[in-house]
Amino acid sequence: LRQRLAGSQGGLGRGLLSLLSRDRLDEDTWEAIEDVLLTADVGVAPTQELVEKLRTRLRVEGGQTVDARTVLREELIALVDPDMDRRLQVSGADGTPGVVLVVGVNGTGKTTTVGKIARILVAEDRSVVLGAADTFRAAAVEQLATWGERVGVDVVRGPEGTDPASVAFESVKEGIDTKADTVIVDTAGRLQNKAGLMDELGKVKRVIEKQAPVTEVLLVLDATTGQNGMIQARVFSEVVNVTGIVLTKLDGSAKGGIVVAVQRELGVPVKLVGLGEGADDLAPFDAAAFVDALLG
Ligand code: GDP
């Protein structure tokens, strides 16, 4: 996984390192450093902050003694916020299962992510039920059913066009009846308008919470979509109380800086990253490991 990350994101780290290793860090160089960061979707404010810190530290500690790589590594890790709690809340209390609601726009990798999370939990000997509440697309339901077979967990589904909330309700009910550890609910991601989305997800959440608290709301974002992804993030966070972000398709994007931008925007940690289409291509996000992969 680390290799795959380094493959796609390495250009960012190498670009910064080579600029910082120049003999003279003049204004042109600092501008070039800013460009590299902005191109990687780090965002304007975090880019300025980072450049300011690098300038100060490399000036103060200056001369040959300071190692640009060490300073860059420390400041990048600080930027990614290593102290955020990134553990998934997959356990319930009082005999109810943990309930993970997975939200995001269609095509971001939501259904795939649900399957991958199920696989990780099953590997940890947890019992899992999946809810196919993306009832507007028959293909999404079929896709989740296939994941269920592959991973060996039950998938609760309804006929096409069923009310998503009723599928969500039934899946949590099955989770309670079968004493499952975790229920993961795949939701519809039609970003038709904010009011519609709010109605739909609000209802899903309400019917679930008649039976058990939602322990985690994961927002799935496609790392390749840049500013568009940031807009989606904003809309969803206004509609539901997002508790964690899954950044997919980092394998196909050189724009790892979005990790920083989206955490800043929502004040919520990136908890998982998607690094490919395969069943094992989902990894917990770790700030230091991420930065080390960048820097190669
Ligand atoms: P949904 O519409 O949001 O449920 O998205 P899907 O789960 O159907 O995924 C859309 C496409 O993205 C599929 O072809 C997935 O295989 C692909 N995909 C999902 N996650 C990743 C990832 O981390 N990396 C790559 N390269 N592809 C991914």
Can you describe this structure in just a few lines?
The protein has 296 residues and is of the alpha/beta class.
Entry keywords:
296 residues; alpha/beta; 51% helix; binds guanosine-5'-diphosphate
Structural account:
The chain contains 11 helices and 8 strands. The chain has 296 residues and is α/β, with parallel strands linked by helices. Helix 9 (226-239) runs parallel beside helix 10 (258-266). Bound molecules: guanosine-5'-diphosphate. The site of guanosine-5'-diphosphate has 20 residues, from helix 5 and helix 6.
Q: Quote the beta fraction.
A: 5-15%
Order of helices and strands: HHHHEHEHEHEHEHEHEEH
Got a strand count? 8
Order of adjacent strands in the largest pleated sheet: 3-2-4-1-5-6-7-8
From the N-terminal CA to the C-terminal CA, the straight-line distance is 13 Å
Rounded to an integer, what's the Rg over CA atoms? Answer: 21 Å
Main sheet attributes: strand count, strand direction, barrel closure: 8 strands, mixed
| Quaternary structure type | single chain
Please identify the structural class as seen in this structure: alpha/beta
Count, helices: 11
Helix content: 40-55%
How would you state the average pLDDT, rounded?
91
> Which of globular, elongated, flat, extended, rod-shaped describes the shape?
elongated
Low-confidence parts lasting 5 or more residues at pLDDT below 50?
none
Give the ligands present: guanosine-5'-diphosphate
Keywords: Cell membrane, Cytoplasm, GTP-binding, Hydrolase, Membrane, Nucleotide-binding, Receptor, Transmembrane, Transmembrane helix
Organism: Nocardioides koreensis
Catalytic activity: GTP + H2O = GDP + phosphate + H(+)
Main location: membrane
